[in-house]
Amino acid sequence: MQLGRRLFYDADLSADGSMSCATCHARRHAFADGNRPHPGMTDQPGVRNVPSLANVGAFSTLTWIDQHVTRLDRQFFIPMMGHHPVEMGMPDRTTLVGRIAGNACYRHLFARAFPRAQGRIDADTIATAVALFERTLVSRDSAWDQARQGRVTLKPEAAHGQALPDDDEAALESFLRALTDVHFLHDPALALPPEACPA
Ligand code: HEC
């Protein structure tokens, strides 16, 4: 999902252009952020640790405060415009739509992804596009899944979910390899999109 991926990594989605969804949900941490809250755009500290988005498409409720949010395309508006805490600080839907519709590459990608909208971009289609990308964040048959089914034994650090030093890339990789599958960690389709607009 080219369009959703672009939006997910695009800092233009935050009011001051300083942070994208991926700033907090970073791929090298399985789309989470180590193990700590992340401050939002205004430096207002986050209140919860950033959860991984692995398999988020399969969860029945999203967000821990408001268990009523069950759809990814609704959840989108929480980081975008929420105040408790401020994450991306977007004032309203009109500003968001103006940002996206002002970009020639997005106009091209929206027209292609939503042909029936005939080039019209609105906040709901932006949310839908991001949700489609989030549903591709799927991890299946990781070592953790295999261990649960009794097929392998996990290394102790993975089994106990031990805290890892943030700067130890090798330890992080081996930890994530136990908890997610290789596709999820290394598929280029989930990584930062190229700068050039896809044809
Ligand atoms: C400032 C950091 C930050 C930014 C930016 C951010 N998030 Fe989050 N995200 C969080 C935190 C913290 C939570 C957990 C909050 C909660 O559950 O109440 C969360 C939760 C989520 C969840 C629910 C996951 C679950 O397991 O229930 C989804 C989905 C999500 N974010 C998607 C996004 C998308 C899409 C964007 C970009 C539009 C985004 N996030 C931007 C920090 C952030």
Automatic annotation (TrEMBL):
GO terms for molecular function: cytochrome-c peroxidase activity; electron transfer activity; heme binding; metal ion binding. This is Cytochrome c domain-containing protein. The keyword Oxidoreductase applies. PANTHER family: CYTOCHROME C PEROXIDASE-RELATED. InterPro entries: Cyt_c-like_dom, Cyt_c-like_dom_sf, Cytochrome_c_Peroxidase/MauG, Di-haem_cyt_c_peroxidsae. One of its GO terms (cellular component) is cell envelope. Residues 1-180 form the Cytochrome c domain. The lineage of its organism: Bacteria, Pseudomonadati, Pseudomonadota, Alphaproteobacteria, Acetobacterales. Keywords: Heme, Iron, Metal-binding, Oxidoreductase. It is found in: Cell envelope. Gene3D superfamilies: Cytochrome c-like domain.
